[in-house]
Specification:
There is one protein chain. The protein has 205 residues and is α+β, with helices and mostly antiparallel strands. α2 packs across α3. The N terminus and C terminus are likely disordered.
Length: 205
């Protein structure tokens, strides 16, 4: 997983990437969009919470962006992650059949896509093993909603720590520093939704 310039390892504001390792089209597309909108590296980097050097590496393909980083850049450029990746417009079929998309594993977590591409809301079903990424602090634009399906989840929000069991849910501004970890050796499974929209409370952070 990429770490923003100047950030300590394991303490970045990124979620683990759930994108393929090779993204051949994203680098030139990022550069093209920035230039089309007549924005400097410094301007975009400041809005995305990156250094200009890090953004330059993304635009030249020397670094791979995480999903939250792509979400932030898509928001700045007024487009979608699918557009950044050069994908065809999203299908408008509202139904996602079980087994239609292969799960993706990243840094110990397993992600099952639960929605279509090209939308502002990103729903996932996530399997979190015990001990995986428990010390990773996440901070990024948007809101998050999660619902525990099985096992227990330890959710750190700022200085508070909550333990959620099956049927429990949480909804919070993702600019609040947060940690997610399985509270039991058997791990936990949850539904997870991330959206680019932010509540008015985001201005408080």
């Amino acid at each position: 997983m990429n770490t923003p310039e100047g950030a300590a390892p394991g303490r970045s504001g990124e979620l683990p990437t759930i994108l393929p390792e090779a993204l051949p089209d994203v680098a030139p597309r990022l550069r093209e969009l920035r230039r089309d909108r007549r924005l400097t590296l410094e301007t975009v980097a400041a809005r995305a919470g990156l250094s200009p050097a890090h953004l330059s590496r993304l635009e030249t393909g020397r670094r791979q962006p995480s999903l939250p980083m792509l979400l932030a850049l898509a928001r700045i450029y007024g487009t979608t992650v699918s557009d950044l990746l050069g994908e065809a417009p999203a299908e408008r079929d509202p139904v996602v059949r079980a087994g239609r998309q292969e799960p993706v594993e990243a840094d110990g977590w397993t992600y099952h896509r639960a929605g279509g591409s090209g939308r502002a809301m990103q729903p996932l079903r996530v399997v979190v093993p015990y001990g995986a990424q428990g010390d990773l602090v996440r901070v990024h634009p948007g809101e998050e909603w999660l619902y525990v399906l099985g096992g227990r989840l330890r959710l750190g929000l700022g200085d508070a720590v909550h333990v959620l069991g099956p049927g429990d849910s949480a909804h919070f501004d993702s600019l609040t520093p947060h940690r997610l970890a399985a509270a039991d050796p058997g791990g936990t499974e949850l539904l997870f939704v991330h959206t680019l929209l932010q509540s008015p409370a985001a201005d408080l952070h």
